[in-house]
Amino acid sequence: MAIAEIQGQSTEDVRPPVRLFRNLNAKIASIPMIMTAVFVFIGCTVWTIVHSFTKSRLLPKLDFVGLDQYERLWGTRRWLVSIENLAIYGICSLVLSLVIGFTLAALLDRKIRFENTFRTILLYPFALSFIVTGLVWQWILNPDFGIQSVVRGWGWESFTFDPLYNPDIVIFGILIAGIWQGSGFIMVVMLAGLRGIDEEIWKAARVDGIPTWKTYIFVVIPMMRPVFVTALVLITSGIVKVYDLVVAQTSGGPGIASEVPAKYVYDKMFQAQNLGQGFAASTMMLLSVVIILIPWAYLEFGGKKRG
User: Fold this and answer.
1) Where in the chain is the domain with CATH 1.10.3720.10?
2) Cβ neighbours of residue 108 under 8 Å, at least 6 residues apart?
3) What is the mean pLDDT of residues 63-85?
4) How far apart are CA 168 and CA 88, in angstroms?
5) What would be the CATH architecture of the domain defined by 70-306?
6) What is the mean pLDDT of residues 49-77?
7) Contacts within 8 Å (CB) and 24+ apart, 225-231
8) Where along the sequence do coiled-coil regions lie (predicted)?
9) What is this structure's pTM?
10) Cα separation of 258 and 251, whole Å?
11) Per-residue pLDDT at 6
12) Is 237 in contact with 97 (CB distance < 8 Å)?
């Protein structure tokens, strides 16, 4: 009996620690980050949303006007044009960046000669700032001394290529610069994913006589789903905040043909000194991101939980 009691006491003494105190050092170390996220990011977001319902001008003030700022926002042609441009730029940039990036990565993954050289050349544009990229492509697309001038100098006098001066296609001129800069980085992300594919899969595909393109589509790409999700998030974050390229290439012109939401927010807050309208526009940008992220998060994490 005494031995049993001693054993019982020793078992009780070695009870596992309470869940709250597990990894206590890590939890204490994360407190500054959590406080920053709560008070800076979430706090500033709430502050912006609240002031979007006011008629703040040069300085923020709690003079509520209901949904007036939003009604004025969606009744402004400039804002509607910027939303249309963002949709066109976003869809094209998303598709082309993924396709071009994956294609380049697949070509480099074939163990070609001078791979490091090609990889450096293709990644180099990403090292440039968007302002530099915009100015470079503004020069290249200038009809007086850019591509159009060069081709006409070769004898094709009727050749016309001036997207930055054509209101109907100006957003595609900006898209060219964005794709040129971002595709190299997506290529590197995809190449890292391809290098993680087991070589035995390729050997098995060759033994079974499966064509290379079918191996990519039906085997490799499904295995690289996390890599594609990462690339998708990176591209989307760049799309929503596109601003530098527009300012460097067109400054929103011709007229308002190349306006984007980020430029609209900046102009309203710092040039027009209309904080209420700028807050309303930035809130709508935040809402668009949330509308995209919630379904993705539900499918990504909710599906795993159900599984």
Assistant:
1) 70-306
2) 115, 118, 119, 187, 191
3) 94
4) 12
5) Orthogonal Bundle (1.10)
6) 92
7) 226/193, 227/189, 227/190, 227/192, 227/193, 228/98, 229/300, 230/189, 231/97, 231/98, 231/101, 231/186, 231/189, 231/190
8) none
9) 0.83
10) 8
11) 43
12) no
